[in-house]
Specification:
About 30% of the residues lie in helices and about 20% in strands. It contains 6 helices and 9 strands, in the order βαβαββααβββαβαβ.
């Protein structure tokens, strides 16, 4: 695990973009394709600002979501909807490069369908992402894996459904640890004083919180934090 401290949010965006550029180009050179998992929240802002500057072969990207809310795509809570509005128009990415949630079905059906779509995208049921871009909530959650929730112990499902999310909207799908901890790289990007206490609990006190369980067996974890977020580290 590597902690990278930078001055402010703008520096986070710059640093994050340079990591994405390097990891995507390495993946494309070595394996012919780049598989990335996106998150919502502040990660959307960082990527929509930073990614258009990245030099890469966009046609070789496959983009999926670390978690997604069971809402229509035109709903403000739809993570894909945010990227469709704010990222696709600024890059050469196309909608069909994104693995998106099936609309108009139950949460359980959506999770099952998402698993099938990932199998097709990876041409395997071994989902090994080159990069997962993760956020950390004020309660230490990441993806839609919340403290004390039974999904923290899920070992069979690769994509699970949650219908009692403590954070609205309640119905979501999420990648589980068997997939997260198979990734080649995981990057958390955190800015602002509001994250300082939780970062200390995870990085210094080593509390068993959902974000702290992101420990890829053969991959790397980076915590990219600005000065305000890192003030207690």
């Amino acid at each position: 695990m590597t902690t990278i401290k930078v001055k402010n949010e703008q520096e986070i965006i710059k640093k994050l973009s340079s990591y994405v550029e390097k990891i995507s180009n390495d993946a494309i050179v070595n394996r012919g394709r780049f598989y990335i998992g996106l998150s919502g929240g502040s990660v959307v802002k960082y990527l929509c600002e930073g990614l258009p500057q990245v030099k890469t072969d966009w046609s070789k990207w496959t983009l999926a979501f670390c978690d997604e809310r069971i809402v229509p795509e035109d709903n403000d809570d739809s993570t894909f909807g945010c990227y469709e509005r704010m990222l696709i128009p600024k890059t050469k990415l196309t909608r069909n490069q994104f693995v998106v949630l099936k609309q108009g079905v139950t949460a359980k059906e959506a999770a099952k369908d998402y698993t099938e779509q990932l199998k097709e995208a990876f041409k395997s049921d071994n989902f090994k992402f080159d990069l997962l871009l993760l956020g950390m909530g004020p309660d230490g959650h990441t993806c839609s894996l919340f403290p004390g929730h039974p999904l923290l112990d899920e070992v069979d499902l690769k994509v699970a459904v949650i219908t009692d999310s403590p954070k609205p909207p309640p119905a979501r799908i999420t990648l589980t640890y068997p997939v997260i901890n198979k990734a080649r790289n995981c990057i958390f990007a955190c800015s602002g004083a509001g994250k300082a206490e939780m970062l200390k609990r995870i990085l210094i006190n080593k509390e068993d919180l959902p974000a702290a369980r992101v420990q890829p067996k053969e991959g790397s974890v980076y915590w990219l934090v600005d000065e305000s977020a890192a003030q207690l580290l």
